[in-house]
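Re: [ENG-882] Designed sequences occasionally contain unexpected residues at chain ends

Forwarding the minimal case from QA. Structure tokens:
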């Protein structure tokens, strides 16, 4: 029996390695993409564009009518579209391969206060799931831990690498916290009332949060005779070098999260999920707090919300002057991350300008994650992380990639899924 199990494990591991595409070599020759409609990711569009890049960096962005010599490999992209690579915020890509196989699940750690846990070192750059993101234009991701009250520290990676060291483009960008809820429900499986009701322990839970961070702050100001790794990890929150990603929904909870964080001296705050954020928009604007929204394809959070509130919240917040990004968390989140462009398209279908919706996956996300100085838009001097699509990349019928580049390297768009599609699409062809 053991031999059978070991054989199956070997088959799984070897099969996984063989199916993974080899990461592309460093860019050695310049590229020029000519004739496409360029969506710069910052709200601007250039028809009949010319995009040039060399040594991994963009060297020219402008009209194809410009009198400038094309260099290197010239790609004729007439009738096509060019976009910056999409960025998936709040993702567990590479942390879980198969949910039912515990050994492949590294998204959460034992314990409830783990700010020192680094998701990056558990990131599997050769994941089949990660590979399947690229054909839809998702080329970068924030790898985020889950579970507990303080889940740990996230990092940002590009999705074509041998290992996590090669993949990292920003290490330990922020700490993630699941904020306590002010409502609770009974355990229906024990016969308790499952209806939501105010949680009498909410105030006590907030006191625990305050106490933890005050203790951490006191430790950091002390002579540190004894090492306390969790407290040490919070230093970036107080000096502003790390962002505080607070996973929270509800008007009261969002208000408390911002108010208490400010009281503790934590100012670099991002709200994740943010259902109800539209009701406290003025508070978010006043404190310069960005929001990473969930996908719109879900039910409203409250029975008092409008039926289409999950589809219109992006426009509502942006109209208020709030920096909004789009993340991925929830059921089947890793596999569904490839659908991020279509979720942005849904926001566009419900009142948001199409180019503004694109920013939810490009420049806005880069700003939220603190990487906008070198990626997130098609601008001279930034990384040449971009792709060419047959049509509108925010629509399922148009999102057909013909080429993609990460830091100037032309990457493979083949995955185990495209290989299987090619194999079986030929099976029933008539002779």
């Amino acid at each position: 029996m053991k031999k059978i199990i070991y054989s199956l494990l070997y088959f799984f591991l070897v099969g996984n390695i063989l199916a993974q595409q080899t990461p592309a070599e460093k860019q050695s020759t310049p590229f020029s993409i000519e004739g496409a409609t360029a969506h710069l990711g910052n709200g601007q569009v250039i028809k009949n564009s010319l995009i040039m890049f060399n040594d991994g960096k963009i060297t020219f962005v402008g009209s194809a009518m410009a009198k400038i010599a094309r260099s290197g490999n010239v790609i004729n992209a007439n009738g096509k579209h060019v976009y910056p690579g999409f960025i998936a915020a709040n993702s567990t890509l590479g942390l879980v391969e198969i949910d039912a196989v515990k050994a492949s699940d590294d998204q959460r750690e034992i314990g409830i206060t783990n700010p020192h846990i680094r998701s990056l070192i558990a990131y599997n750059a050769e994941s089949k799931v990660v590979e399947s993101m690229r054909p839809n234009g998702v080329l970068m991701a924030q790898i985020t831990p889950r579970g507990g009250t303080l889940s740990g520290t996230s990092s940002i990676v590009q999705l074509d690498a041998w290992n996590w060291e090669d993949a990292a483009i920003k290490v330990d960008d922020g700490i993630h916290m699941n904020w306590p809820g002010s409502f609770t429900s009974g355990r229906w499986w024990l016969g308790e009332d499952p209806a939501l009701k105010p949680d009498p322990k909410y105030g006590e839970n907030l006191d625990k949060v305050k106490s933890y961070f005050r203790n951490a702050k006191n430790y950091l100001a002390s002579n540190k005779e004894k090492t306390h790794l969790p407290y040490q990890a919070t230093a970036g929150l107080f000096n502003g070098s790390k962002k505080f990603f607070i996973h929270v929904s509800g008007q009261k909870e969002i208000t408390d999260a911002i108010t208490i964080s400010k009281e503790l001296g934590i100012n670099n705050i991002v709200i994740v999920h943010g259902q109800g954020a539209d009701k406290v928009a003025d508070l978010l604007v006043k404190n310069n707090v960005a929001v990473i929204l969930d996908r719109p394809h879900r039910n409203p959070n409250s029975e008092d919300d409008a039926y289409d509130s999950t589809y219109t919240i992006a426009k509502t917040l942006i109209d208020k002057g709030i920096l909004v990004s789009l993340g991925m968390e929830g059921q089947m989140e890793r596999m569904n991350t490839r659908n991020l462009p279509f979720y942005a398209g849904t926001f566009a279908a419900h009142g948001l300008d199409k180019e503004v919706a694109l920013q939810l996956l490009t420049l806005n996300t880069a700003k939220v994650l603190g990487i906008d100085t070198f990626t997130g838009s098609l601008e001279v001097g930034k990384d040449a992380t971009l792709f060419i699509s047959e049509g509108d990349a925010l629509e399922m019928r148009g999102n057909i990639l013909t080429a993609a580049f990460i830091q100037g390297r032309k990457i493979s768009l083949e995955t185990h899924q495209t290989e299987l599609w090619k194999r079986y699409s030929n099976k029933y062809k008539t002779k």
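QA comment: On inspection the terminal residues look reasonable. Residues 18-85+378-431 form a domain with the Urease, subunit C; domain 1 fold (CATH 2.30.40.10). Proposing we downgrade this to a documentation issue.
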